[in-house]
From TrEMBL:
SUPFAM superfamilies named in the record: Acyl-CoA N-acyltransferases (Nat)
Highest taxon, organism lineage: Bacteria
Pfam families: Rv0428c_C
Protein name: GNAT family N-acetyltransferase
Taxonomic source organism: Nocardiopsis alba
Length: 230
């Protein structure tokens, strides 16, 4: 398995994992591709195993494809799997403590407002509950901007922190809210011992990329999903 794939899935874990036939299968009731995908463990793994595994469980077959897995990627394409959501992994290493504005209220559990903001982004209740369950399996901090218009999450794993679930309500964008939340979460993580930070962002999300790159994050890897249409 690609090293970054192992790290990402550790910080965004499925509810259930099965390993067989050269694949590591993740299951999380269909909540997010990242928690409901196959990760390659053997170059010779049969694509048909992925199709069978997820179809048998009523889920769309999905594989997360990382650098060095080009042959598998080609086989997936031959089996009709479509390439979707190219994603960048950005890291800030070493992580120095940023100048945090202190405008984010950070808690060790999702507050009602954090959940409202997540649900307000268009998620149905089951999806929101699933994300909260995923994050409940790791050491996470949940931040909400003092304005109530932005949120984010930091997943702490020793000296590493993953930033995820960032979002700002549409009417409040362009006011620096996301920048405040990001800096405050990184400062919180640094105070807890984190010295490396990373995040995953869809390559087409220009505004988010601009924020993260201006905040000291640089590309260290990338992946895309291969999904079999219904």
């Amino acid at each position: 398995m690609h090293p970054w794939a192992a790290r990402v899935t550790r910080d965004w874990p499925p509810f259930h994992v099965e390993r067989r036939a050269g694949w590591r299968f993740g299951l999380a009731d269909g909540v997010t591709k990242r928690a409901n995908c196959a990760l390659l463990e053997s170059p010779e793994a049969d694509v048909a195993e992925v199709t069978r595994f997820y179809r048998d469980r009523g889920l769309r077959p999905c594989v997360q494809v990382w650098p060095g897995e080009e042959e598998t990627d080609a086989r997936l394409a031959e089996h009709g799997y479509e390439r979707v959501e190219p994603t960048l992994v950005l890291a800030r290493e070493p992580l120095e403590r940023p100048k945090a504005p202190g405008r984010t209220r950070i808690h060790d559990r999702p507050t009602g407002r954090w959940i409202e903001l997540f649900a307000g982004a268009g998620s149905d209740p089951a999806w929101t509950d699933g994300v909260v369950r995923i994050l409940g399996a790791v050491t996470a901090a949940y931040g909400v901007h003092e304005s109530g218009d932005g949120r984010g999450c930091a997943v702490l794993d020793g000296e590493s922190v993953a930033i995820c679930s960032m979002g700002t309500v549409e009417a409040a964008r362009g006011r620096g809210i996301a920048r405040d939340v990001l800096a405050d979460l990184l400062a919180w993580a640094h105070d807890k011992g984190a010295r490396r930070a990373y995040l995953c962002v869809v390559a087409a999300n220009g505004p988010a990329l601009g924020l993260y790159r201006s905040s000291g994050f640089v590309e260290v890897s990338r992946y895309h999903n291969r999904v079999l249409p219904d």
